[in-house]
Design goal:
Layout: E1 3-13, E2 32-41, E3 44-50, H1 51-55, E4 63-66, E5 71-74, E6 76-78, H2 90-97, H3 102-107, H4 112-121, H5 124-140, E7 143-149, H6 156-172, E8 176-184, H7 195-212, E9 218-223, H8 230-242, E10 246-251, H9 259-266, E11 270-273, H10 279-288, E12 291-294, H11 296-301, H12 310-315, E13 321-322, H13 336-347, H14 351-358, H15 360-365, E14 383-386, H16 393-396, E15 403-408, E16 411-412
Helix pairs in contact: 5-6, 7-8, 9-10, 13-14
This protein binds N-(iminomethyl)-L-glutamic acid and fe (iii) ion.
Length: 413
């Protein structure tokens, strides 16, 4: 079996530890090996240690990568993206600079609806071509797994089209994708006067078909004023659970609608955004063991100053996750290093906590912590090499890509 050895990393950031999400002080434990190395075969890590030990295990056939002067991390796991859509939202972007808000733009028919029209008009192949290019953006920023949501189709056929594109990206590019159904992203124009009708379409036609075709692992919803309220969310997500889907939820992004508490009540796997969540919501999440997915890119892009209270969540023992929320409206970034920067400068997370939130905790939130999120024996050889010598530099040099090389299952991607 061809083997691969990575030698002499200034810091091999392994994230070694229990095969589950990390809480409290555990987020600060990166399992760094100075002059670190590992050996991989068959796409998996077989040995991890000091370079002097691993060197001895190399044979004549072993491909050796010298990472001198560099740090090496497991591939980032981005647990919240809207990867597949057509068009862009440059007009919204410019309108916000003139002072219009995200909500005002949505009310006059811009926002998500613009992207829905463009996505419906695009063919499956066109959407795939766009998503393939974006998959490369993720890889070039060190991300090797991305959760990806539908939600810009909002008809049965268009939602299926997006989910098939998500699956194809996972099969035909090196980026692993984890599919989430987000039919409850917004009420489509044609159902503006018949909200109950759209909810019935989701429950009676979309969910059964998507579950039958195994096109999604998770079901998500945008629980927000003018979108889906707590009652709508309870109905839709209860039906989703009956179809065997696990839950992720957009909650308390623009207003505090009690979404965090609903996530706790429904036993969601994650509650995402949480910018407006107060102390009672945080303790409800803690009691129910739900992972918060924090999305600072959307706070930044919308020009808000209100970042989620990561410190309170960490102190409450929550297994915090960081993600990009990659989407055309509120977070057009595929860069996890950028999210690390926001986490440290705007959310008072330490660089180590941010890295744990972007790797092993994210992997746990996607039910994949046995395979990805750390560099340990038996896990996939998904990793990236960065041109710097201290892991804190990843969050420090913002807007500059230090990525030298990225590998998926032991192969250069
Ligand atoms: O997570 N909040 C809803 N969904 C996205 C934004 C989608 C869009 O504006 O296109 C988000 O921020
Ligand atoms: Fe989102």
């Amino acid at each position: 079996m061809p083997s691969l050895a990575l030698l002499h990393a200034s810091q091999l950031v392994t994230l070694a530890g229990p095969s589950r999400a990390r809480h409290g002080k555990e987020l600060s434990e990166l399992g760094i090996i100075p002059d670190g190395a590992f050996l991989a075969a068959g796409g998996k890590v077989t040995h991890v240690g000091k370079s002097t030990e691993i060197e001895k295990l190399c044979g004549r056939e072993t491909e050796v990568i010298d990472a001198r002067g560099c740090i090496v991390l497991p591939g980032f796991v981005d647990a919240h993206t809207h990867l597949v859509f057509a068009g862009n939202r440059l007009d919204d972007f410019e309108a916000r600079a003139r002072g219009e808000t995200y909500e005002q733009i949505a009310k006059r028919g811009g926002g998500i609806q613009t992207t829905v029209q463009a996505t419906r008009a695009a063919s499956e192949d066109e959407l795939y071509a766009l998503a393939e290019e974006r998959a490369n953006w993720f890889l070039r920023n060190g991300t090797t797994t991305a959760e990806a949501k539908s939600g810009y189709g909002l008809t049965l056929e268009d939602e299926l089209k997006i989910l098939r594109v998500i699956r194809r990206v996972g099969m035909e590019t090196p980026l692993e994708t984890v599919p989430t159904f987000l039919g409850a992203h917004a009420f489509p124009r044609e159902f503006r006067e018949d909200r109950v009708g759209y909810i019935s379409l989701i429950i009676e036609e979309m969910l059964p078909r998507i579950a039958r075709e195994r096109l999604a692992e998770y079901c998500d919803i945008f629980c927000e004023r003018d979108y889906f309220d707590v009652e709508d969310a309870r109905r839709i997500l209860t039906a989703a659970k009956q179809h065997g889907l696990k839950l992720r939820m957009h909650v308390d992004q623009l207003t505090n609608s009690g979404g965090a508490k609903l996530a706790a009540e429904l036993g969601a796997i994650t509650a995402d955004h949480l910018e407006q969540t107060a102390a009672d919501g945080i303790s409800a999440l803690a009691k129910a063991g739900i992972q918060p997915v924090l999305l600072p890119g959307s706070v930044y892009t919308l020009g808000s100053k209100r970042y989620p209270d990561a410190r309170a969540m960490l102190d409450a023992g929550l297994a915090v996750v960081l993600a990009t929320d990659f989407n055309p409206g509120s977070s057009p970034s595929a860069s996890m290093p950028m999210m690390l920067s926001f986490a440290v400068t705007q959310m008072q997370m330490s660089p180590a906590e941010a890295i744990t939130a972007a790797t092993v905790n994210a992997a746990a939130s996607l039910n994949r912590v046995d395979k990805i999120g750390s560099l340990e024996v038996g896990k996939l050889a998904n990793f990236a090499i960065y041109d710097c010598e201290d892991y804190r530099e990843l969050a420090y040099w913002f807007g500059i890509s230090l990525m030298r090389d990225v590998f998926v299952r032991g192969e250069r991607a």
